[in-house]
# Entry
Amino acid sequence: MSFPSDLEIARSVTPRPIADVAADLGLRPDEIEYYGPTKAKVTLAGVERVERERPRGKYVLVTAITPTPLGEGKTTTTVGLAQGLNRIGRNASVAIRQPSLGPVFGIKGGAAGGGYSQIIPMEDFNLHLTGDIHAISAAHNLASAFLDNHLHHGNALGIDPFSIRWPRVVDISDRAIRRTVIGLGGKDNGVPREAEWVITVASEVMAILALSRDLFDLRARLGRIVMATDRDGKAVTAEDLRVAGAMTVLLRDAIKPNLLQTLEGGPAYVHCGPFANIAHGNSSIIADRVALSTSEIVVTEAGFGADMGAEKFFDIKCRASGLRPDAAVVVATVRALKMHGGVGKIVAGKPLDPALTTENVEAVRRGAANLAKHIGIVGSYGVPVIVAMNAFPTDTPAEFEAIRELSLEAGARDAVVTTNFADGGRGAEALAAAVWDAAESAGGAFRLLYPDEMPLREKIETIATRIYGADGVDFAPAATKALAEYEGFGYGHLPVCVAKTHLSLSHDPNLKGRPTGFRLPVRDVRLAAGAGFIYPLAGDMRTMPGLPSHPAGEKIDIDADGNVVGLF
# Structure
């Protein structure tokens, strides 16, 4: 008998009325805005009230080793851990990102978790949800339209068209529009110029929404967006173009966090979805705040490996929020560590390589060098680490024991086998107990990687050498020029959000395991003044993904009854 699909499992459960989930959290009826019976938004007034009246819970981050094409089950573990915590008597919430339609219809598919550790309703979670990402697209593109309209009507601000750094966005992977020429067809169609498109989840507006504390902070941050420079080299902002207010109006509902539930009926806050290999890869500060005020412990997830989402969680999100994590989980699988150890090959459309399902303790030990690095990255911030070994049926006790032994040597407090994909919260009870113990014993030793006053160049070099393990950084002339410009604008105090591949600790996706002897090439650096960071582009990192030869969307359809099929 085959294991049911994620969609089949999700549909096998009757969700609790979201009003009951909200009531259990202590949220009042007038603090909830319903989007049908199974999803809702929490008002900002509700967020502020529970923060005033309730103590703050424990804060746990879930991250992972360097991803492989097999997937390590980070979201599944995040949801399963929260379910497990609830099963051992702790009032736990999940706080995760909303997925982009790009990956859903592209190469990754859905992102609601998997097996018996999912967020439901699964279709809504992956498809539009409450429309936040569309609102972000509209707000971003409104600014684009105002900018080009300003050029068309005489350019009173003296904007240098060659300095424009504000792209347009769409939440679909579409490589053909990465670079376009706009304004063609005569003077009534605007000023011709070259333009760029990025995926919506890489938009600065997405990052701003995720990092804003309230509606007025959102308004101020939108006004600080630098869209271009004038002919004298002075920054031109969204405030200068008088568009920031209208952008804020478009985002008045999107700033409210979404409330859903796990398969086992526990609360799940889903809000914002910045990519971790391009943007800062974490859900919103507002969602975490309301979760921490309505729960005894909150499990949140950072994108990709600890070198990507976790570093940005610590150095960007925690810096902005003032919140401090109590513990972290690093997710690993036996088969992924074998790949990092040089064993096995994944070919799309072909059966799984038998080398990945055959016991090979030595390959696991070699690949565990990657795990050790990620444990070390998290540990460098003073956060206690638990390793979650996401189990598959072909894994063996000897392989688990090797991972546990090497994890403890690398500084983890514990390493625990989890079976939450197949068993739900029951399969994560041991992990939940270990995480609660770590969070309870946290001694307030959290520290950031670098201070605000460190020069931008040194911040990039610090991340490259201490987090990635690079020997140094090679700055292209464009990057050097940009850094000088941003510091001249007064943005030298901002943190750094490196855009690089998630498939390696380095900039090169082909370098697996724990690469050494490389230098990080930075070809350009861009400014996100409203979000409050700069982002270097390392290697060939693109801000608009492309679709694979056979996109996941080929399998998505409706059946004879009008139900969604093909989501996974």
Summary: The mean pLDDT is 95.
